[in-house]
What we know:
The chain is 49% helix and 16% strand. By secondary structure, the protein is an alpha/beta fold. Strands 3-2-1-4-11-10-5-6-9-7-8 form an eleven-stranded mixed sheet, sandwiched between helices.
Amino acid sequence: xKVAVDVxxxxxxxxxxxxxxxxxxxxxxxxxxxxxxxxxxxxxxLAKHRWEGLNLSVVHAPQVVEMHESPAKALRTKRNSSIxxxxxxxxxGRSDAVVTAGNSGAAMAISMWKLKMLEGVERPALxxxxxxxxxxxxxxxxxxxxxxxxxxxxQFAIMGEMYARFISAKDRPRVxxxxxxxxxxxxxxxxxxxxxxxxxxxxxxxxHVEGRDIYSGxxxxxxxxxxxxxxxxxxxxxISESFGAMLGREIRKNLWARIGYFFMRGALENFRxxxxxxxxxxxxxxGINGTCFICHGHSSPKAIKNAIRAAxxxxxxxxxxxxxEALRDSQDLKELGERVAPKxxxxxxxxxxx
Length: 354
């Protein structure tokens, strides 16, 4: 595997990105790690590390897509940006995967432009791994598409289910739609239409799930549009960070609390690792005809290393081929949705009247 790394993307670029790439090249069995960015800056960062003998190379990219820039502008005006050049390496067959901690919207737009979509896919989606009481669950879409049609969420469910098989080694991952209640009558127009379609699909569909079910292990795959998914994801991150800060303040209050921490620190450290996003590295952009992993903007060197590991594993297992096979029935589900949607609303109106 060859992995191209967008060195200029992210809040901690280029320092943390280069360090993470060096860690990956040292720890993982990779043919090559390609550092894409301003050559002078990249080589300056490499000089801070002992990288002699590692399979590292540098490809110059003079432009940077800033975190605040619109994806459309980046696509039009920054053809030589680090993320664009990295994706071009995949398109040309010079790399097998891309890892970036930069502007996720730009990464998605440029991936769609350069690599195109998998056969049958209408929209790509970010599949975020979240800790749960039974292992990990997948939240899809975690921020790629803020406005979705029913067929988009149906395809997210199919892709998320296939990815869950790879992550959890489960033959029949449980799939749920994120809603404001578990009852069939809950939800908005979008979730009700998707619920009707997935109920007739071949997936192990368990119906609606609530926000509190995201981390409970109730479902292996939680499906939603990118607006809802990103809010849920950031809320979880905020709770985790706030919980850690509050716990630290309580421990420092008195001697007995510090003694208690001494005996509990092993368990607390294990918990911290479970909820630490850097342990998971990055998340795949499912649906594009290539491998692109997108990391948190604040990614540490450890997170970058783990993202490179995850991207190489994704490519080795040829997950995209499995996604294409799983998506072959999605057109039939789309036609089913177009037939059943009017019937759903007729039933809803009847319930409202009675």
